[in-house]
Design goal:
CATH class of one domain: Alpha Beta
Distance between the termini: 65 Å
CATH architecture of one domain: 3-Layer(aba) Sandwich
Strand order of the largest sheet: 1-2-3
Helix content: 25-40%
Strand content: 15-25%
Structural class: alpha+beta
CATH topology of one domain: YefM-like fold
Number of helices: 3
Shape: elongated
Mean pLDDT: 92
Radius of gyration: 27 Å
Length: 74
């Protein structure tokens, strides 16, 4: 089901319109009868997989930095 409301009505009844959107109603906001916006429920993004990048870290990554490298960071 789709309903169309004008801007003034949308401003007055925003909480009610949002409840209708949550219930599955499509709400179109119009200015002078011309649709300008469509209220839709927010869709939660799908869960992202952990470890989606292939690769490994070499053991040398965990070794202390050489002194000359440490001095460059000071």
């Amino acid at each position: 089901m789709t309903i169309q409301v004008n801007v003034q009505e949308a401003k007055t009844r925003l909480s009610q319109l949002l409840a209708q959107v949550e219930a599955g109603v499509d709400v179109v906001i119009a200015r002078d009868g011309t649709p300008v916006a469509h209220l839709v429920p927010v869709q939660a993004p799908p869960p992202r997989p952990v470890g989606f990048v292939a690769g490994t870290v070499p053991e040398s990554f965990f070794e202390p930095l050489p002194e000359d490298e440490l001095e460059r960071w000071s």
